[in-house]
Amino acid sequence: MFQKKPWGDEDVTLLEKGKRGIFRIVFSWTTLMILILLAEFATVFLALEFLSRYIPYLFGGIYLFTGGVVVHILNSDDDPTIKLSWIIVVLLLPGFGSLFYWFVTKEVGHRRVNGALEEIDRQTEQYVKKEPELMEQLKQEDRPLYNMATYLLGHGGYPVCGNTKVTYLSLGEEKFELLLEKLEEAKSFIFLEYFILDEGYMWGRILNILEKKVKEGVEVRVMYDGMCAVTLLPYSYPEKLKKLGIKSKMFAPIQPFVSTHYNNRDHRKILVIDGTIAFTGGINLADEYINRRQVYGHWKDTAVMLEGDAARSFTLMFLRMWNGDRNISRYRVPGQKPPEDDYEYYLNVEQKQWGTKGYVIPYGDRPYDGEQAAEMVYLDIINQAQEYVHIMSPYLILDNEMLTALMYAAKRGVDVEIILPHIPDKKYAFALAKTHYRELIGAGVKIFEYTPGFVHAKVFVADDCRGVVGTINLDYRSLYLHYECAAYLHRVPQLADIETDFQKTRELSHMVTEEDIRKEKLITRFAGRVLKLIAPLM
């Protein structure tokens, strides 16, 4: 089952591909829905067979329970589209649909994690650099930025940062080469937090450097999402890393069939070096992200490297998540703090003065905090746009607010363009995206599909003055369910690099027309329309 190969140029695989496929099937949403349907049919059969005399009471109780759940959903604080999808599920599967709703939405594990994160936020609020003088200056000189900075600081603790050099990286290969160079220069600590970590050439090269840096006395921490343990890595992988001297954690390890941890994943990509350099963007640590392995054609992805004050914010973001599975106050000894709680040590790093223009706001988003920061930032960019909004996203599964904002921007003369994949990684997501094409194109939005392959970039750029590069997709999971992060960029010179990259990517893309929509396969159109009923739950 296990195969060992040397690190470096050789690929490294710890799980056989057949096993990976089985795990993907066993732990998928599709499997869960099939099991629910089978349980529903089995229960009905047993009720008819053994409880025939009690059937009126049984079904009467089920429908009363279902009605109560529908009333509860209607009065919840969820997005209206999400409410509608849940009501459809509950009504189509009386009884079991209601139980499934409670199972998913009232899940205790992630609420406990989120509670711990909120407690950590309160305990570490003193380390957020609020810069009142800078905020007052922005209030007088740049009201749009001041408003955004006020929102992200007040509803997430994410401060606006000056003194930050931005480097835009238009491909995974560019990030990889620069990342290797910067890792070699690390002197104090290296923090990595990624949604996907998969053994192969990319991770092997990085791990070689991390192992060497540990021997040089550099502290290394690696945190990755627990879903990797059922699709990519053995469950014991953190222990393997610890044997190399690397501190390692899985976020929300999967507990099959008894946990909904898979519903709220750590989708963030953060790498911090010495508190002075930070990387974020769409690029995970796996070979397809650098086109070493091509599964869906050419993989188009992006990232940014931030040097200076913004790196400090990503350091704090990482530390807060690292400690998210426990209450840090319990581990503190008067006069002595364990290294993982020593925020002063990791955050009080002297930053080089870059003399750069513009501002950066590193920010995050998470479920259960009652604030959809990721969507609010995107909506703000769209609603403020005067000349253009250009977007790259792998998915286009929109709620009513996002759909309305995109259409209204186009109708009022803003050039709204979206680049999506031509070769999808998930066919159901592709079918769902196409359900929006006719309405968006009819309103004047231009949609392009990247013909060489798959676009995984999550990029917004508008009016040469504001943009976002991060991990946040245009779908419900990113905007409502996952832990995400990004860098909001305001009047930094590198916005021109992002727009140039968008134009070059568009040149390689096909513009979708009404004729293309008419020629779409019947099965794709049918699947998209059916899946749209439960799109917010996918």
Mind explaining what this structure looks like?
The protein is an alpha/beta fold. The protein has three domains: about 90 residues, no CATH class; about 240 residues, 2-Layer Sandwich (Endonuclease, Chain A); about 160 residues, Endonuclease Chain A (Endonuclease, Chain A). The chain is built from 22 helices and 17 strands. The strands form three sheets. It has an eight-stranded mixed sheet, with helices on both faces. Helix 3 packs antiparallel against helix 4, helix 4 packs antiparallel against helix 5 and helix 15 runs parallel beside helix 16. The longest helix is centred in the N-terminal third of the chain and has 22 residues. The N terminus is likely disordered.
Order of strands side by side in the largest beta sheet? 9-16-15-14-10-11-12-17
Secondary structure category = alpha/beta
Largest sheet: 8 strands, mixed
Number of domains: 3
Helix content: 40-55%
Q: Which superfamily, in CATH terms, is the homologous superfamily of the largest domain?
A: Endonuclease Chain A
CATH topology (level 3) name of the largest domain: Endonuclease, Chain A
Please tally the β strands and state the result: 17
CATH class assignment of the largest domain: Alpha Beta
C-alpha end-to-end distance: 32 Å
Dominant shape: globular
Report Rg. 24 Å
- Beta-strand portion reads 15-25%
Low-confidence residue ranges: 1-8, 13-29, 327-338
At CATH level 2, the architecture of the largest domain is 2-Layer Sandwich
Number of helices: 22
What number is the mean pLDDT? 85
